[in-house]
Structure of Centromere protein H:
Amino acid sequence: MPNYKNLEQALKQLRENVAEFSIGAVSRDDYRPPDEKIEILRKSIHRLSSRTIMLKAKKDNTLNEEIPTTNMENIFQKLQEDTAKAIINNIAIEQCLHSSTILDIMSDESQIDVQEKMYAAMRKLFMLNDVILSTQQSIQKAFKKQLDLKIQCQKAIFDHHSFLKEKEEQRKQNLQKTNPNVVKNKEKLMKTINKINIMKKLITNFIATSGKLLMKRPFLLEMLEKHAEIINEETMRKIIENADKD
């Protein structure tokens, strides 16, 4: 009997605790009122509903966030082709609508005044179109003539360079036979000129990229101006002559 009474006492205490336990509470330490818990559940349901709608929209519109495996160049090429086709179709549809409107006006006997104005406008349009076609043909002929002249000029320049190169080779061969020292000295001179020009380019590039240094040291501007021009064989010969005079 004592055990039975203890069990009844425990059940009574459990019933009281359950009755006092807050609705929706996770533990005894959760003292949020029922209204607040209902509001939290409502917001959670709203978020889940929004997520469900978004996923359904992605599925319906076949949205795919995966990286495309096809060649991007082909995709852009297809995009350009489709865009060009769309523009052409739009222009064609617009022209068809204009033509249909003109035909409707021409076939309507009640719009004689409008028809006469349209005939006059179309005659002017055809005359202007003939002038434009004639001008376009003249421009095309001029462009063709210009292109032919450019080709002839380039061919003449190439032939002239080939002739000069051939003459230079012949002169070198003759000098090699008659006076080989002159050829060696000239080769050394050309190597020296190339080295000097390379150094001048390096100096000007280094100085030109140092803006703050140019502000602090103005003499670099003089150096930049001094080394701006590339020397050639004639310039080198003048330098040597001036050095000999001094």
About this structure: The helical segments are 2-20, 34-60, 72-107, 112-178, 180-208, 211-216, 219-226, 233-245. Residues 115-178 form one domain. The chain has a mean pLDDT of 76.
